[in-house]
Each structure stands twice: as C-alpha cells, then as structure tokens.
Amino acid sequence: MTVVSLFVGIPWVLMLWATGIRKAPKIDLEGWKVLLPIGAAHALGHAGAVIALGAGAVSFAQTVKAAEPVFTCVLSYLVLGTVFKWQVYSALLPIIVGVSIASLKELSFTYKALYGALASNVAFASRAVLSKATMDKPVGENMDAPNLYGILTIIAFVLSLPFALYFEGGQFAAAWAKSTAVVGAPWLIRQMALDGMYYYLYNEVAFITLNQVSPITHSIANTIKRVCIILATVLVFGNKLTPLGALGSSIAVAGTFLYSFAKGKYK
Questions:
Q1: How many domains is the chain built from?
Q2: For labelling alongside 183, which of 141, 165, 172, 248 has CA 20 to 30 A away?
C-alpha cells in the first residue's frame, strides 16, 4: 500500500509536466543530492504511518502522530536555527502529555503501531524542516512547492519499491487473491487508486501551505487534521476510545490551540 499510494501520483505529475500545464523542473546533480535525503524521509514517514495504521486502530496511530510538532520543534532549532520564546515551547507540553495518556490507555495499543507512528513523526518532521530550507533556496529551475513534492514522490517511490518487493513481494499474489475474493478486483483497484490520488493531492496542498508558514505551524495544522480523522474512524469503523484515551486526545488538541495563541502573541 505504501508503494502503490506513492506511485499513483507519479503519472499525474508527469502528465502535468508533459502537457505544459505545469512547468517541468530542471535539477542538476548537486540538486538531486540535496533532495535525496528529503525523499528518503518522505518514504520512511509514509511507510511508518501505513505500518502503524495496519498494526492498530486508526485512532491510536493518529494520536501518537499528533506529537509531530515536538519533533519538528527540535529539528527546526537544529537545522534552521529557529528559536521561540519559552511561552511558545511550554505550549507543546500539553500535546506531549495528552498523547502519552491516550497512547498508554488506548484499547488498540501495540508496540508495532507505536514504533511505526514514532518513526513517521521523526521522518515527516525531518521532511518538513529540510523541505522548508529547500523552498527558501531552490535547488533547480521551476522548483516551487508543488514541483518539489512531485520530485520527492518520485524519489520516495524508487526508494520504497525494493523494500516492498523484498519483504512482501512473495506474498503479494496470495494476499491479492484473498482480498479480491472478498471485495472484487475492480473495487480494490479503485480504492487503492483513490487512496494514492487523495494522498498526493493532500500532500501537494500541504507543501504549498508549508511554503507560507513555519514547519512547526505546519505540524500543528496536521495535528488538528488528526482529530478529525480520529472522530471519523469512531463513526465509520466503530473504534472505541477509553475515557482516558478521549481525555488524552482532548488535552493534546487543547495544546495545539495554546501553541497557536502563544506563537501569535510571542513572536
């Protein structure tokens, strides 16, 4: 699923470049060297998220990933030298506490889901910070935010494919036959294609947003998105949250609003 969802966006962006609807990027060898680690972070972040979703309930994975602003905050300081006042950093504490409470008492807790979500946090925080630096100093011609994400998608797909073939290639035929026997091939193909297209378009919009705001603010916006996902999965899949899990999620969300307020007041 990681490889397929990455692949779906590639024909789309290549079509945009080939038709001239969007100017194709021009990158030299040094530029590719800069983009390669960012593409690797994108691949690892996406794989970690998909693994986490497969190993536990969507609500648990999204709650752990709500801690992404903390990782982005640290990396923004190390890479970009971004420093805020202590009031802004203190607003991140409720996010940490809330995520910890929700994670420890979540009914669907598994270590595989936890490790996958944490790996995704680190990778996506790295991607955001490094991408922001690249947006400030483009590594080629026509390297705006949408084209940057298009290139990163291609890199992530190429890097992910060998791992997918090594770990799951031999099981693919049997898994496909088992799945299509239940839902049918047309339905499964359509759902996988839609998953990939939604993923690509969502991330392209996210990169356009990242180009306008700081990486930490971008992560905060992602945290609000996760609350919507958690609530949706409770309704669609019937996933149940424990009282402490619901409390932890609420505290984490409250922390995001405190952060937004503190960042606006203490520039």
A1: 1
A2: 165
